[in-house]
Amino acid sequence: MTPSHSVKNGVRYRYYISSVLIQGQTDKAAKLNRVPAAQIEALIVSALRERHAGQANEVEAQGSRSSSDQDLISAHIARVDVNPDHFAVQLSAKTGQQDGKQDQALSRKGPARDHANPNIMVIPWRKPPSKRPREIILPAGPSSHQDSRPIRAETRARLVTAIAKGRRWLDELIAGTLTTVEEIATTENCTVRQVNMTISLAFLAPNLVQAAVEGRVPRGVGVANLRDAPTEWSRQYARLGLAP
User: How far apart are CA 225 and CA 229, in angstroms?
Assistant: First the structure.
């Protein structure tokens, strides 16, 4: 596979794409033709460090700094084949000989060795789905009529913006940057009540805030529902009719 990348909404995503697919040979391309680069690299580096933990400890005991991920890959890996359920990592000839004594200790957990070829390390892996399902916070009881669909994108954006604004205003009051809510109201050209209601969003339960950011709050829950919520986190969920 060949390293590549794409840009979406200003964010750069790295991945590996099948070489024959890049060459236009779609008939020879495997079903698994594109995989996320960061996940592959992290798994392989982690497996290498686990396998060479004993050698690394000896080197560090002698006063040398541990090698970087790039140096580790360059020194020990000759090739990586991506399969639907595992990586087949072809080790360098020298590394394969040094690692022979560690096979039995590591065979029960973590990366295993393909005993048909002593220079190949097998790392279990499955490609994650391209779209992860969102686990919506369910209603507290079966009698609730709460809409089980996820929050609308525009509602989520307004809610997250309001929470961030409330936290910022609270931090400014605590730090003394702004001394009164009247000063905030004048600066933001809004009413004092609106400032107070927005600041109340800074006291929402952390899990509820995270669910709002991830879009897991059910449809119908927005800024109006969460303003001036009870201080106790359990009562916040109860007020919305949601399971904590």
Answer: 8
* DSSP characters over 50-116: HHTHHHHHHHHHTTPPPPPHHHHHHHHEEEEEE-SSEEEEEE-HHHHHHTGGGHHHHSSSSSEE-TT
R_g of the chain, CA atoms, integer Å: 26
Q: Which two tokens stand for residue 80?
A: 């990586």
Give the up-direction half-sphere exposure of residue 62: CA atoms within 13 A in the CB hemisphere. Answer: 7
Q: Is the confidence at residue 63, as pLDDT, over 70?
A: no
Q: What's the one-letter identity of residue 88? A: A
pLDDT at 150: 77
Q: pLDDT tens, 91-119?
A: 876 655 555 544 444 444 445 555 566 67
Q: What is the pLDDT of residues 155-196, one digit of tens each?
A: 889 999 999 999 999 999 999 888 899 999 998 999 999 999
CA distance 228 to 244: 18
Pairing verdict, β 77-82 and 86-91: antiparallel
> 131, 138, 142, 121: which is closest to 44 by C-alpha?
121
pLDDT of residue 178: 86
Query: 135 with 230: CB under 8 angstroms?
Result: no
Query: How would you class 67 by CB atoms within 10 Å of its CB: exposed for 0-12, middle for 13-18, buried for 19 or more?
Result: middle
